Amino acid sequence: MFVELIATVFAGIACAGVAMLLNTVTGRRLPKWVMPVAAGLGMIGMTISNEYTWFGRTAERLPEGVEIATTVEEQSWLRPWTQIWPYTKRFAAVDKATARTNANLPDQRLADVYFFGRWSPVNQAPMLFDCAGARSALLIDGADFGDDGTVTNADWEAMPTGDPMLTLVCET
Q1: Is residue 143 within 8 Å of 151, Cβ to Cβ?
Q2: At CA 127, angle to CA 113 and CA 114, rounded to 5?
Q3: Does residue 29 sit in the same domain as residue 89?
């Protein structure tokens, strides 16, 4: 976040510098408001660029075995350009490399799920998937494991059959 702030400030300085150079080249014929407007437009442009490139930059830095399951795109009337080109604000990724199964329950998989948000810290949570029953349960609090590996006190939620997260975990 700090690096993006510094980049935004430097983009404003660079655009103001270009406007000052153009003013000098034209014999100081440009109005006085051109330099601050150029700086502001440069900073707005850099901010928009950071919003649209965040997902790509974050996704390419994911470790091997972690795959993106779902994305959430943002549209806002405060940013009119997002009505035409929405940007990815958050996404969930599954760590397939650490997905575990239990021999007693072959249709269930336990995997770590990571939740990424544009201005949020990364959250990690273990999630249990029932591939045969098309349901899942976050194992954050209240779930206990029995001696045979069954999970008790889990808050199961039904998932659509073609859910990308369920498909990603159950295909391993």
Answers
A1: yes
A2: 10
A3: no
